[in-house]
Write a structure and sequence with these properties.
The chain has 21 helices and 18 strands. The radius of gyration is 24 Å and the shape is globular. By secondary structure, it is α/β, with parallel strands linked by helices. It has three domains: 161 residues, 3-Layer(aba) Sandwich (Rossmann fold), CATH 3.40.50.970; 160 residues, TPP-binding domain (Rossmann fold, 3-Layer(aba) Sandwich); 192 residues, Thiamin diphosphate (ThDP)-binding fold, Pyr/PP domains (Rossmann fold). The strands form three sheets. The protein has a six-stranded parallel β-sheet with strand order 2-1-3-4-6-5, with helices on both faces. A six-stranded parallel β-sheet has the order 9-8-7-10-11-12, with helices on both faces. Strands 14-13-15-16-18-17 form a six-stranded parallel β-sheet, sandwiched between helices. Helices cover 40% and strands 16% of the residues.
């Protein structure tokens, strides 16, 4: 069997469904082999970065890796931002790159560079295939590493001369394994700490949006009443309508939800990644009692030094805690402060819901209307910019993986290609991407991909004609900001030129109707709203006045 054919057969055996990318000369053999596959679909994109973001969202939504493909040299370098984003946000991904012949890798040669060396810092594993018979082992290893907790990106590089060779090897059958669980003695210690606490609180991180982890967390909270604050990436781990949902933490400034953490005498962190929200933001005094529950031991940090670590499968760990708490009983918690925090934050979320401003639209009103139009299982993707802060604070969720925010590597340009992948995974759900005008134009070429695939997505652009988040942060720190302004295209002509539906909305009371109309249209739709970012400084001022009574 030809090596490139064997490679594809191995991907089929692993259940890989999609590869997104831009091919080149050095992976031509692979592409011809892939064309014969009946189960792996290749999605041609307009830029490799878009391909990586699409593979990332597929991985986040399914828990299974998709491939992103580029050729050697600039094809590989174009992939790296999306790959780094996927790896730091814990999304399984296969990165597949071509390479020149092994006979010229040792010397100066056209487009030759050390791709594997470049990708090692942003992947869980990266390697070159130097022998065709190694393909089954290496693909089996790559997929296993990508899927293993915590998930991430892996890279395999296939030189063009190796792809052409014959091999007698055969694909390896995938084998599943059970994740380890904490020792029962540790569970007993954790239960003892929980029972001693009067105001325990749970911080739900990225690791809690796995389906079974979310289910077990909800059972724990229903049984005990312990309140939950989620990180940006933990949204939906508990239902926003549950009394124990205390909404979201993660802003640079202290928010109302931080008051509930301040008042707690025990923090139970579940599936928490330090890249999501650094502990110095909520444990400045380094004196919080912490129980760490995660798939891996904690990162060492002076502000996050748990007294107890339950290392293993998060869902199973919670299940063990539930069983022991139920068996022992004897716990009683004071939820009054947490319920007060929830009420205050709930009022914040509705503060401008009936706004009728014309000319510009407040961020709070835009997010309120989005929440009213989207159903419990519909999907919102946030790009990176000032809008991300408003989405993180004001958009709350009923279900896991229904608000996708990049918050580890945090790359702009994420949402448009990500929305295309979300529609591929869930064609029966509404999919909305919210972007700033800066982030949207970073991968604007994928508008053609969306039209070619007839993606039923809506992209809402918040236009302020500047890098608004940088302006917001500079203003808060220095009382002024540098020149961050730019001009934009005629949005409706842009939409028309790509064959998209287009809508301009500058009246607050019309926004819900415009959103509903966009979702009733076939194919991709663009909504542009002039955003009132004067609210940024007002929020900064309001947060600065928060005083937490304990």
């Amino acid at each position: 069997m030809k090596a490139s054919d064997l490679f594809v057969k191995c991907l089929e055996e692993e259940g890989i469904e999609y590869i997104f990318g831009v091919p080149g000369e050095e992976n031509a053999d692979f592409m011809i082999s892939l064309e014969q596959s009946e189960s792996v679909r290749f999605i041609l994109t307009r830029h490799e970065q878009g391909a990586a973001f699409m593979a990332e969202i597929y991985g986040r939504l399914t828990g299974q890796p998709a491939g992103c493909l580029g050729t050697l040299g600039p094809g590989a370098t174009n992939l790296i931002t999306g790959v780094a984003d996927s790896n730091m946000d814990r999304a399984p991904m296969l990165v597949l790159t071509g390479q020149g012949s092994t006979r010229r890798l040792h010397k100066e040669s056209h487009q030759i560079m050390d791709v594997v060396g470049m990708f090692k810092p942003v992947t869980k594993w990266a390697e070159t295939i130097y022998h065709q018979d190694n393909i089954p082992e290496m693909i089996r290893k790559a997929v296993r590493i990508a899927r293993s907790e915590k998930p991430g990106a892996v890279l395999l590089e296939l030189p063009e001369d190796i792809a052409k060779l014959d091999s007698l090897s055969l694909p390896m059958k995938p084998q599943r394994f059970r994740r380890p669980v904490p020792h029962q003695e540790q569970i007993l210690q954790a239960v003892e700490q929980i029972k001693k606490a009067k105001r325990p609180i749970i911080i739900a991180g990225n690791g809690c949006i796995r389906t079974r982890a979310s289910e077990q967390l909800r059972i724990l909270c229903e049984m005990t009443g312990i309140g939950v604050v989620s990180t940006f990436m933990g949204k939906g781990a508990v239902d926003m309508d549950a009394d124990y949902c205390l909404y979201t933490v993660g802003l640079g400034q202290k928010d109302l939800t931080n008051c509930a953490i301040d008042a707690s005498d025990l923090v139970i962190s579940l599936g928490f990644d330090m890249v999501e929200y650094h502990p110095k933001q909520w444990n400045k005094g380094k004196n919080k009692a912490v129980i760490h529950v995660d798939y891996q031991p904690t990162e060492i940090d002076e502000h996050y030094h748990p007294e107890l670590e339950l290392v293993g499968d998060v869902a199973h760990s919670i299940e063990m805690l539930i069983a022991e708490l139920k068996a022992q009983g004897g716990y009683s918690f004071d939820s009054s402060q947490q319920l007060s925090t929830r009420d205050q934050m709930k009022a914040e979320l509705a503060i401008h819901k009936d706004d009728k401003t014309e000319g510009t639209i407040r961020p709070q009103k835009a997010i309120w209307d989005v929440r009213q139009v989207l159903g419990a299982d519909d999907i919102l993707l946030s790009d990176v910019g000032a809008h991300k802060m408003w989405i993180a604070r004001h958009y709350q969720c009923h279900s896991p993986n229904t608000c996708l925010i990049p918050n580890g590597f945090c790359s702009m340009g994420f949402a448009l290609p990500g929305a295309i992948a979300a529609n591929i995974v869930h064609p029966d759900r509404k999919v909305l991407a919210i972007c700033g005008d800066a982030g949207f134009l970073m991968n604007v070429q994928e508008m053609e991909t969306a039209k070619r695939l007839n993606s039923n997505i809506t992209v809402m652009v918040w236009e302020d004609q500047m890098y608004g988040l940088i302006a917001w942060k500079q203003q808060a720190q220095f009382g002024k900001h540098t020149d961050l302004s730019f001009t934009n295209p005629d949005w409706m002509k842009l939409a028309s030129s790509f064959g998209w539906n287009g809508h301009w909305c500058d009246k607050s009371e019309n926004l819900q109707d415009v959103l509903k109309r966009s979702f009733s249209e076939m194919g991709p739709s663009l909504i542009v709203i002039p955003i009132d970012y004067r609210e940024n400084d007002k929020l900064t001022e309001r947060l600065g006045e928060i005083s937490c009574p304990i």
